[in-house]
Automatic annotation (TrEMBL):
Its EC number is 1.17.7.4. It comes from Brevundimonas subvibrioides. Catalyzes the conversion of 1-hydroxy-2-methyl-2-(E)-butenyl 4-diphosphate (HMBPP) into a mixture of isopentenyl diphosphate (IPP) and dimethylallyl diphosphate (DMAPP). Acts in the terminal step of the DOXP/MEP pathway for isoprenoid precursor biosynthesis. The keyword Iron applies. This is 4-hydroxy-3-methylbut-2-enyl diphosphate reductase. [4Fe-4S] cluster binds at residues 26, 110, 209. GO terms for molecular function: 4 iron, 4 sulfur cluster binding; 4-hydroxy-3-methylbut-2-enyl diphosphate reductase activity; metal ion binding. Pathway: Isoprenoid biosynthesis; dimethylallyl diphosphate biosynthesis; dimethylallyl diphosphate from (2E)-4-hydroxy-3-methylbutenyl diphosphate: step 1/1; Isoprenoid biosynthesis; isopentenyl diphosphate biosynthesis via DXP pathway; isopentenyl diphosphate from 1-deoxy-D-xylulose 5-phosphate: step 6/6. Pfam families: LYTB. It catalyses: isopentenyl diphosphate + 2 oxidized [2Fe-2S]-[ferredoxin] + H2O = (2E)-4-hydroxy-3-methylbut-2-enyl diphosphate + 2 reduced [2Fe-2S]-[ferredoxin] + 2 H(+); dimethylallyl diphosphate + 2 oxidized [2Fe-2S]-[ferredoxin] + H2O = (2E)-4-hydroxy-3-methylbut-2-enyl diphosphate + 2 reduced [2Fe-2S]-[ferredoxin] + 2 H(+).
Length: 323
């Protein structure tokens, strides 16, 4: 472990703080936020954004202050302003409506979510019925379901759903998943599906993305031996909520999701000698650093960076913003 200690704070209780690697922004979130920022620079304010660009309160508030206007649907957008679609993806009907209205739109759907859309279309074109593993009502699931006609995809949320799923007719099956699921929960669901349908083919590449995989692996490393794991992220951020669950299952004494340092309940630290800190894929690093500073103000902190996967993935911005 690569440990470095600031000067000991006299009289404060010692606390080891282990930082997860990697944590925080993934390439898809970074790109989506840049799309909104660049759109405001290029076209001026206001720029409309359909749904929260990413599920983080602080990101959304900052972009609002720059001139972004967040709306639930396109009918709230005027004809003469650009609109950005969020990183989670949209049903096909959304760009179709935007085109029909001749709106200027920018699609911030993460390329790894778009990849799942393309795979689902390919399976459908090959005559397969698709099982989508994911959470009902989540915008990514709504977007993926909306790539194909109604009835082409069945949503499976749980092991129980996997047991009770009925194949429509005798169509061959394929499966896809939400990109931010728990790896362990998903393999349980797949174990049931494969027992029932042994011929179910695996995707070329897993749909649960590299960022989800790496953050869950990193928090597992931290959890064992941490009396408390703090996950920086918003309540509606699916991948952040998963990090709390993964930490608890991997042995953390406690794990809490916080938007920022102000949400730390200091009684969580009672009797705790090691705290793990991580952040969901939509949580900005300055919020993580503010959590560390809040801990340093109250404890004699020994800070340690856990070793972990170095991420190098980046995604290009849409051409409309680079020319
Ligand atoms: O999908 P999730 O609720 O985790 O969304 P976030 O918090 O905005 O994180 C980005 C992930 C994403 C856009 C879909 O993979
Ligand atoms: Fe893309 Fe994965 Fe980030 Fe979602 S979590 S935006 S799929 S890189």
């Amino acid at each position: 472990m690569d440990a470095f200690s600031p000067s000991p704070a006299a009289g404060l209780r010692p606390l080891t703080v282990r930082m997860a690697t990697p944590r925080g922004f993934c390439a898809g979130v970074d790109r989506a936020i840049q799309i909104v920022e660049r759109a405001i620079e290029k076209f001026g304010a206001p720029v409309y954004v359909r749904h929260e660009i990413v599920h983080n309160k602080h990101v959304v508030d900052r972009l609002k202050s720059l001139g972004a206007v967040f709306v639930k649907d396109l009918d709230e957008c005027p004809d003469d302003r650009p609109v950005v679609f969020s990183a989670h993806g949209v049903p096909k009907s959304v760009p179709a409506t935007a085109r029909a209205r001749e709106l200027m739109f920018l699609d911030a759907t993460c390329p790894l979510v778009s990849k799942v859309h393309v795979e689902a279309e390919r399976h459908h074109a090959n005559g397969r019925h698709i099982i989508l593993i994911g959470h009902a009502g989540h915008p990514e699931v709504v977007g993926t379901l909306g790539q194909l006609p109604q009835g082409a995809i069945s949503l499976v949320e749980t092991v129980e759903d996997a047991e009770s799923f009925q194949r429509p007719g005798d169509r061959p099956l394929a499966y896809a998943t939400q990109t931010t699921l728990s790896l362990d929960d998903t393999s349980e669901i797949l174990r049931v599906l494969k027992r029932r349908f042994p011929e179910l083919p695996d995707p070329h590449k897993e749909d649960i993305c590299y960022a989800t995989t790496n953050r869950q692996e990193a928090v597992k490393q931290l959890a064992n031996g941490s009396g408390l794991v703090l996950v920086v992220g918003s309540k509606n951020s699916s991948n952040s909520v998963r990090l709390v669950e993964v930490a608890l299952r991997a042995g953390a004494g406690n794990a809490q999701l916080i938007d920022d340092a102000s949400q730390i309940d200091w009684s969580w630290l009672d009797g705790v000698s090691t705290v793990g800190v991580t952040a969901g894929a939509s949580a900005p690093e300055p919020l993580v650093q503010a959590v560390v500073q809040a801990l340093q103000a109250r404890f004699d902190v020994t800070l340690a960076d856990d070793p972990g996967e170095q991420e190098t993935v980046t995604f290009k911005l849409p051409r409309a913003l680079t020319v």
